[in-house]
Automatic annotation (TrEMBL):
Family: Belongs to the bacterial solute-binding protein 1 family.
UniProtKB keywords: DNA-binding, Signal, Transcription, Transcription regulation, Transport
Keyword Transmembrane tagged: no
Identification of the protein by name: Extracellular solute-binding protein
Length: 468
């Protein structure tokens, strides 16, 4: 004789039945107003009891697909048809927002919408003739869309989810919101608590300057098998921190870049070079990306790294004893913000369903899921600042520290550079930091190559002034 099914087997079988009926309704097998076959016929078809079948039918009632008419039957009421959306995002979203499981949650609430995921860049996607319906992008990519006059390829959205106001500002152009913020992070200092305890070095706090960090990193380094500090310098979310901390921005005059000689900008560039060339604290390591540095940190090879809350998801299932602190500063506390949002392409023929998906990612339900299952910071202020249990996730004890440094957040655009100029700037900075060119050559090359690449918002300001 067959044994009774386990509780798990029962629920799996019931879900199969519900999914089959759901698919048949959404595929139009049963017209609106028609009745499903009788419960006895369905029970026989699926080889389950009438009682079990009724449990499954309750799910379809809650989803708004059918209504139960006493003594008559189960009538189809939905006019919805199945919709399949294409979502384009960077692969990191699998980690940063626990994408696959987040979509499972979405599908459970909106069973008539299916989401196919592709990986890529929002910039490339906007140039396609058949783009994805929905896409995830960061604030620097949005800045590039604005500067290349492609922001109008995105659908203006209505703000939902009560995010921090500065997050919506990052995706707003000419008074219109083009992406719903979903997660963000400041660049912070991530450190190994055990290393600090072993060497009797006080842990970092918000008063640290880079000189404090250098002294601590020297004490933490030792034996050639451990270094005090490391970060992936070429990352667009690492090197700009030093320039932002200078307190200055690039200045322009009639479309030409003013020289950075004798400026705090240049001093910040020199400070960065001094740190990465200090072989007592910084390893000569050819990292391919920030994940490589993250791996060194997880292995205990470095004591401190520049990091963000999204990348900390790489540490979520490790045993490393770590915490976070505000990034050291030069003159006053400043750090870089990384902001990700979800946008809808204007060419999408499924805007209603796309809006449902975008709104879900920004909703309290979606934001709470991200908060509970990742180390990423949700865009919704209420959710981000609420205490949540995070079972099975190795998160920093000072997770909420980000609230204390919101005042210090800056954007790439605060440097007064276009995205094109950013690309040219880092090319020359890498040459300088690698000792291929000297300080004077750096200043000359920057002034020569960046001139003519005035940031878009400066050009707009000049045009407005002319009209006045």
């Amino acid at each position: 004789m067959k044994g009774r099914p386990t509780q798990r087997q029962f629920h799996e079988r019931l879900e199969e039945v519900v999914q089959t009926l759901r698919d048949e309704i959404l595929d139009g097998r049963y017209r609106v107003g028609s009745f499903l076959p009788s419960e006895s016929v369905l029970a026989e078809r699926f080889q389950i009891s009438n009682k079990s079948l009724r449990i499954g039918l309750v799910t379809l009632v809650k989803e708004g697909l059918i209504e139960k008419i006493p003594s008559v039957g189960n009538r189809v009421v939905t006019r919805r048809t199945r919709v399949t959306l294409t979502l384009m995002c960077p692969p990191s979203m699998l980690r940063d927002i626990n994408l696959r499981k987040l979509l499972d949650e979405f599908h459970a609430l909106h069973p008539w919408i299916r989401v196919d995921t592709i990986f890529g860049s929002a910039i490339n996607e906007c140039e396609k003739s058949n783009p994805a319906d929905v896409m995830v992008l960061n604030q620097l990519q949005f800045q590039e869309l604005v500067e290349t006059k492609q922001s109008d390829k995105l659908e203006p959205l209505r703000e939902t989810g009560s995010p921090y106001p500065f997050l919506t500002e990052a995706f707003t152009f000419k008074g219109l919101l083009y992406a719903q913020p979903i997660i963000f992070s400041p660049i912070v200092l991530c450190y190994n608590k055990d290393h600090f305890r072993e060497r009797n070095v006080p842990e970092p706090d918000g008063s640290w300057t880079w000189e404090h960090l250098i002294r601590a990193a020297t004490a933490l380094s030792g034996g050639g098998d451990r270094f005090g500090l490391c970060f992936h310098l070429p990352s667009e979310n690492r090197w700009p921190v030093f320039l932002l901390q200078s307190g200055e921005k690039f200045e322009w005059e009639e479309g030409n870049l003013k020289s950075i000689r004798d400026t705090r900008l240049l001093e910040s560039i020199k400070l960065c070079k001094r740190i990465i060339h200090n072989r007592d604290i910084f390893p000569l390591y050819l990292s391919e990306n920030s994940d490589d540095v993250q791996n060194l940190f997880a292995e205990g090879k470095v004591s401190m790294i520049m990091n963000n809350y999204m990348s900390m998801n790489e540490l979520a299932h490790t045993g490393i004893h770590y915490d976070v602190s505000a990034l050291p500063f030069i003159g006053e506390p400043r750090t870089l913000s990384v902001i990700c949002g979800i946008a809808i392409h204007k060419q999408s023929l499924k805007k209603e369903a796309a809006t449902v998906l975008a709104d879900y990612f920004a909703s309290v339900h979606g934001q709470e899921f991200i908060r509970k299952t990742t180390t990423s910071i949700p865009a919704c202020k209420r959710v981000a600042e609420a205490p949540y249990e995070m079972p099975g996730i190795n998160s920093p004890s000072r997770y909420g520290m980000f609230r204390d440094i919101l005042f210090s957040l800056r954007k790439h655009s605060d440097l007064n550079l276009s995205v094109v100029a950013f690309g040219q700037l880092i090319k020359h900075l890498k040459a300088y930091w690698s000792d291929l060119i000297q300080e004077e050559q750096l200043c000359d090359r920057l002034q020569q190559s960046l001139s003519g690449n005035t940031p878009a918002f400066t050009l707009q300001d000049e045009a407005a002034a002319i009209q006045k």
